[in-house]
Every structure is written in structure tokens, then in C-alpha cells.
Amino acid sequence: MRPRSSDEPLLQNAAIPEGLERHVLSSGGRERLWFSAGPAVRAERTAAVVLLHGAGANALGAVRMSGFDRLAREEGFLAVFPDGSGPAPDRFLFWNSGGRELDRFRSEADDVTFLEELCAQLAAVHGVDPDRIYMTGFSNGAMMCHRFAAERPHRIAAFAAVAGSLPEACRQSAGEPVTAVLLHGTSDDYVPYAGGRPRKSIVGTARTDVSFAESVRYWVERDRCRAIPEEFAAGSHRIERYGGGRGGSEVVVCTVRGGGHAWPGGRAGLANGNPDEPYAGLDASRWIWEECRRHRREGGVLK
Predict the structure, then answer these.
(1) Is the pLDDT of residue 12 over 50?
(2) Which residues does 255 contact at the CB level (< 8 Å), separation at least 6?
(3) Comparing 119-123, 190-194, 281-285, 297-301, which segment has the lowest mean pLDDT?
(4) Which of 7, 74, 75, 148 has the highest Cβ tally under 10 A?
(5) How far is residue 240's CA from residue 180's CA, in Å, rounded to a whole number?
(6) Exposed, middle or buried: residue 73 (CB in 10 Å: 0-12, 13-18, 19+)?
């Protein structure tokens, strides 16, 4: 089934933009849609970045939001944009990130298994190096990244969560190390920087979020990184690097002072996946790629 066209902003997969390929993966008895973008000629075993859209959005919205398709063609890796699940096949989609607050919208899809199978297919069918698969996401997609990294760390070498906190259900989990790249704005009303109940919601649901500091602390402790980070400041954002983690892992933290619920450097507008105005002082997509590409696994072990 090809995605249908519509005038609805954000919520529906419209006609596929030039340069994207459409794929279907059967997972858990469901046909799951995903898109890919990359250079016309790739290395034999290339890296891949899997980007998860936010709540109520879809894969093509994530393309518009981030520009990761253009970056992939420029840098020579494969950018992958999967759809979540929801009440319709290609619109108003969500990720089962571990909380219960979106249950009235989500399906019973096992998204951890779907993403694990997607990673396996990328390596087996699409020429991706299984030791250089990275995952990133925005909002609900960022929360799903936290969950996947906590439960399936051996499948990815690093992940990046933008404007999405660690799901409460993951706080007690332990396991292999994985590099975490975490970015959040201090004025985010949809996923509060300080944690607690959001002041705004796209889908009108109530939940309680873990604070950004608690999310950072979880990964620093799990990876056994040094407790004192190196710090770098540029414009309205500050970067902290907690190094020395197990297997060469690290936790890299970017705090945007006054930043809202948006993908920094992305296209403005809800139709492009950004509820708030994106911070212009950082190209989040390029920064995430540069941070993640420094890490790899060897036979499933982080190096």
C-alpha cells in the first residue's frame, strides 16, 4: 500500500520526496513501513542512522524536521526513517516507549522487537555495517531510543535523544554500555527539562517525566563514566562530555539555554515536526552524526 496524499500537516505520509526509498518489514504480524536515504553509491559496509519521529508524527515528518536525508547523501551513510504505530496506518503515529500515557493512541506493536529486526535487516539486506548502527529520535522517539538502548544495547554503537527523557520503566535496568548523546532545551514545556508534568501536549495526555539531569545520571552511572565532565560553551548551548566509560563509551550532553521543544537547526513549523521554534545556534543532525560516528562495536562489543 503506497502512502496516500493529503493536505493534513505533520500527521500523514504524503507523496514520497525524491531521493527516498520506501520499504516494508513484516514484524509481529504487522507490515511496518520505513524509508531510507543515502548516496547513490555507498561503501560496501556503510554506517546507518535510524531516526524515530515524535508523537503524532510520522517518518516523512522526521525527514523534513531533521534534514538527515541530505546529510546522509553528503556524508555517505544510510539514513533510516521508520514509522511508529497508531490508529491509522500512516498518520498520527507513536512509539511504545514504555509509558502508558499514550495507550489510547498506540497499537499493541512491539516496537523494541521491530527496531531490532530493522537493525538486523539493514545489515543482512542493505549492506550496513552492524557495528556502526546508530539511533536517534525526537520527543516520544527520543524516549523510544532510551528504551531501545537500555534493552538492546548490543544492537547499536550509540544513540542520541533530542527533547525526550528516560522512560521511568528503564530506570532500574542495567546491562552493556552504550554511548549516549543527550540534548534538551531548558524552556521545553512538552517534555520539561526539570521533569514533572508537561505544561503543553500535542495529544492531550498527562504523564510525569524524568528530569533531564536524572536521564543524564542514569547513563553516566550505567556506562561507569567519570563523574566530572569536560565542559564547552558556544552561544546559548553548553556541551558536557562524561568520558572514560566501559568499552570506550561516553555520555555527551547538550543543554540549550531557553530552548523549546524542537530539533535544533531543523525546519520550523509543526508541519515539519517542530512544535516550537528550533534553536539556530546548532545543527543537531550534523552534531549527532559527528558524535555517534566516533563509536563502533566489534562483534557486538563496544570499542
Answers:
(1) no
(2) 183, 184, 185, 186, 212, 237, 238, 240
(3) 297-301
(4) 148
(5) 12
(6) middle
Q: Where are the domains of the chain?
A: 21-302
Residue 302: φ, ψ to 5°: -65, 135
Q: Residue 172 is placed in which grid cell? A: 532500574
The pLDDT mean for the chain works out to 88
For the cut 60, the answer to whether the pLDDT of residue 287 exceeds it is: yes
Cα separation of 61 and 242, whole Å? 32
In terms of Cα–Cα distance, which of 156, 106, 101, 97 is closest to 130? 156
Which letter does DSSP use for residue 91 in this model?
B
Identify the three-state secondary structure at position 270: helix
Cell (9 digits) for 239? 556541551
Q: Are the C-beta atoms of residues 252 and 179 closer than 8 Å to each other?
A: yes
Contacts of 74 (CB under 8 A, 6+ apart): none
Closest to 205 in 3D by CA, of 193, 192, 195, 190 = 190
Task: Out of 2.130.10.10, 3.40.50.1170, 2.40.100.10, 3.40.50.1820, select the CATH number for domain 21-302.
Answer: 3.40.50.1820
